[in-house]
Amino acid sequence: MDNLTPERRSWNMGQIKSTNTRPERAVRSRLHRLGYRFRIHRRDLPGCPDIVLPKYKSIIFVHGCYWHRHEGCRYAYTPKSRQDFWLKKFARTVQHDVDVQDELKRLGWRVMVIWECEVKQMDEVEKRLLQFLRGPVGEETTGHDAKK
Predict the structure, then answer these.
(1) How far is the C-alpha of 79 from the C-alpha of 122, rounded, in Å?
(2) Cβ neighbours of residue 49 closer than 8 Å, sequence gap 6 or more
(3) Selection from 112, 128, 118 nearest residue 57 by Cα
(4) Rg for the chain (alpha carbons), in Å?
(5) What is the pLDDT of residue 8?
């Protein structure tokens, strides 16, 4: 049972950012420190990717574990109320992610997903970023336990 009024719940949900989140900013900061230059939120590409590195024909999504359903992650819990609603909503989000990544790959982009929980170990994320960006074209990485 929700203890908040519908108006207050709506306000709370409205405060959740979809762009320029703390994990996204952390990844961008690390990339910049490593000497990579990029564009953010390119609306001309499917899914409006978080980070676009045109020189490397590479795209990085920084996904929130809750909304994008990071499989096996403790942050990807399901609310106890209105489960039918939430499960459908989450399923649409996951399917949208798959569709966007497939379309980007079809257009010749390499795609990497970094999960919100992974950003806490930024040194590990850096290793994956360098491996991804220095790897052969056509190589993809979606992070540990990623749902495909």
Answers:
(1) 29
(2) 41, 42, 59, 60, 61, 104
(3) 112
(4) 16
(5) 76
Taking alpha carbons only, the member of 18, 20, 30 closest to residue 133 is 30
Whole-number Cα distances in Å, 136 to 12, 61, 62, 133:
43, 19, 21, 8
Domains along the sequence of the chain with CATH: 20-133 (3.40.960.10)
Nearest to 117 by CA among 22, 13, 17, 8: 22
Please state at what angle helix 122-134 crosses helix 22-33, rounded to 10 degrees. 60
Q: Give the whole-angstrom CA distance, residue 124 versus residue 54.
A: 23
Partner residues linked to 60 by β-bridges = 51, 112
- Residue at token pair 């360098």: 130
With beta carbons less than 8 A apart as the criterion, state whether 62 and 27 touch: yes
Is the pLDDT confidence value at 140 over 60? no
Would strands 51-53 and 39-40 be described as parallel, antiparallel, or unpaired?
antiparallel
pLDDT value at residue 148: 35
Query: What predicted TM-score, i.e. pTM, was given to this entire model?
Result: 0.82
Residue 120: the pLDDT is 95
**Exposed, middle or buried by CB within 10 Å (0-12, 13-18, 19+), for 120?**
exposed
